[in-house]
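Researcher: Predict the fold of Outer envelope protein 64, mitochondrial.
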Amino acid sequence: MNTVKANIKNPKVWVLVIGVTVAGGVGGGGAETRRRKAKFKEDFGAFVQRFLILPSPQPPPPAAKQTLAGLTFAINDIFELEDYVTGFGNPDWARTHEASEKTAVTVTALLKNGAVCVGKTIMGELGFGVSGENMHYGTPINPEMPTHVPGGSSSGSAVAVAAGLVDFALGTDTIGCIRIPAAFCGLLSYRPSHGAVSTIGVLPNSQSLDTVGWLARDPSILLRVGHAVLKLNTVEPRRARRLIFADDLFQLSKVPKQKAEGVISKAIENLSGYQPEQHINFDQHISLNVPSLKGFRDQSTKLQNGISNLKALSSAMVSLQRHEFKTNHEDWVKSVEPKLASDVSDNVLTAINTTHENIKALYDIRKELRACMQILLKDNGILVIPTVADPPSKLNSKKQDTVESHNRALILSSIASMSGCCQVTIPLGKNDGCPISVSFITFHGGDKFLLDTVLDMYSSLKEQINFVSNPVPLQDTNENFDASELLKEKGNAAYKGKQWNKAVNYYSEAIKLNGKKATYYSNRAAAYLQVGCFQKAEEDCNRAISLDEKNVKAYLRRGTARESLLFYKDAAQDFKHALVLEPQNKVARHAEKRLRKLMS
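Model: Structure tokens for Outer envelope protein 64, mitochondrial follow.
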């Protein structure tokens, strides 16, 4: 296997290229077929090319610690990387383009923050398609449902994260290209406010709709990536969150109410900072506030009663995508005549051959819809919708079987795409073996507010998901045995097995039976720390210390939580208190010393 070292100018990184590349085309003899099968077994067919791009070393103090140090990520083949050809999911594109002279701004930001890039992932051709299938490079295998599509167009990035091959991955989202694969693969994903993340060095599909997005399994990583690429403020005013359920959109989904809306409602019951939930008919809301939809409403087909305005919105979105794709790539398509999959070819040819007469109306809809969302959400509202209406279809399904599913997916995706608002996708377990996913959408520019909400709520959501999916059996065979102690021991076992959310669930059940045991709160705080729920960990430690002022572990864990929340002074006090109780405690001594240096 050949290796090559190269140096990328900005930032200072080393590139180690390992000779693993998926060749274009579907031909080849038996040996090639065996190599392809072996590759798919190794990495779920997620990558089109594997390499290592290592960031520069952590700068010495007093420089801040690299926030993504130790994390790995992948990028789909739409991001430019210096000295590499950007393939855009199609061999003819790769064949007719030179290697890039620069690296995409977003990729550079992640490398500067300490993350390691391990390769480029397969994507839908030219950024089209919501299934994630690619006839040239192969369709990445959905780890959650291997016989079903992974979703697209950022299919390889989603699969790489879902399979545990990377900590997070970049993709782009135009009409759902990050959100749909996240839903199909059971992942968290984030589509930021339009224009909030640089698209310099990203091949365009439709620039009015395109955003850079990312996928992760862990909400704390989702937030850390957001801080790196969005340049978020570390402090934001506290606002009582207001969840607004779009009842008409949940009617599109076949997921039982208790596994979607019910989980969210239960999750916020015992959380502070949430107003009583609200409900809305979203189709009626946009009917009253987006007048430019009228012309598209007349053109739209009757998909389902009561959502004619949303169908019109998705129709306008597709028209805008095709218009801008034509502007960007018409010359290349006509000169090269690329080989495309039939569904992609239909999209491309329709885009190239259509003359849009009322382009202004498309941009008017975008402007009106953003204002419409601002009216609804103000500065503290979060619209709750299903991410997708249908489960992923089987691989190689007939076209007619997927048309309605495709249309329903675009209806749900069109809200954030056309308004430019930010949207986070959240997995909620499974129903009949298929991943369940909901999405939160908030106002344009509310990215930190939305990412913080997910982190604040996620552990409680996981508790409710576990409760709905696997009610905890007490199995108390000995009448003298304390059921709460049994649950605590189960929590300890789950914690040792690194099943953090399961541990949280068991400790929570123990607390319900006996809320006077400091150990239960302290142990749950330890599990919360592992999943990045630092505020919840701090609250549990407060409760533990109020019950037992000499609980050393509670002081240590509260100190850790406060340090993670950047409350260095308070954290230092906790570690000092732990040292008073246990003067030989090495963890407390090292932490107190470290914080003293940070504050000096």
